[in-house]
Amino acid sequence: MPEQLAVQFEFLSTHSFSGFYPSSNEEVITHLQQIFINDEQQIFLWGEAGSGKSHLLQACCQEANKLKKTSFYFSLTQKSLPSPSMLEGLENIDLVCFDNIDQIIENSEWELAFFNFFNLHRENNNRLLLSALCPPKYFGLQLPDLKTRMNWGLTLKLNPLSDEERLNALIYKANILGFKIPINVGKFLMTHYASDLPSIWKLLNKIEQATLAAQRKLTIPFLKQILANQNDPKPR
Q1: pLDDT tens per residue, range 37-77
Q2: Neighbours of 114 (CB within 10 A)
Q3: Which residues neighbour 202 within 8 Å (Cβ) at sequence distance 6 or greater?
Q4: φ, ψ dihedrals at 199, nearest 5°
Q5: What's the distance, CA 132 to chain centroid?
Q6: Number of domains forming the structure of the chain
Q7: If 130 and its partner were Cys, which of 101, 154, 171, 222 is the partner (CB 3.0–4.6 Å)?
Q8: Is residue 101 part of a domain?
């Protein structure tokens, strides 16, 4: 397979291990942090949408960078899958992370290309980190040998957060961003505007910018003012 320049990606500075609220997923995080220490060449991470898989895959890339190792991250989308030729040269990367790997299911061209990449990458003793909404044993892959390989290695589940844990994660993330969300304001936000984590994080970025610009503490009236624009989610 000829070498080519791998598609570049930007590290999201907030997507680090220190920026992830661990809750009951501490063991999972430990395994990921030790991906270059343990003997496992492959880790498969699964969990519901919004559980933090993308965050943790990028965190692993940041750790690889600190260790002076090469890394690659890509999030797959079935509606706009790139050409599988993007895999060319990735077999030489120390850590390759594919988010939403289930998006290649039933795409025969991608399945075959990924199977070939998998074998080359493993032969080079590199690390592979994959994520999806369910474990690979439930994948309806057309290529049986690829399904077998995806079940190799370590499979880890990210546990969903309870309402209280989501509130704690909100407060934790705000602290990371440099501002405070009082408990009563956090509860109001989750009750009236958003309760799932992806929606919460989107609102949090807007809230951070507004509090920084206004140099004000966050209160419920101020929160209502921030989110009053017509493009913002309406209170429930």
Answers
A1: 988 899 999 999 889 999 999 999 999 999 999 999 999 98
A2: 23
A3: 194
A4: -70, -40
A5: 10
A6: 2
A7: 101
A8: yes
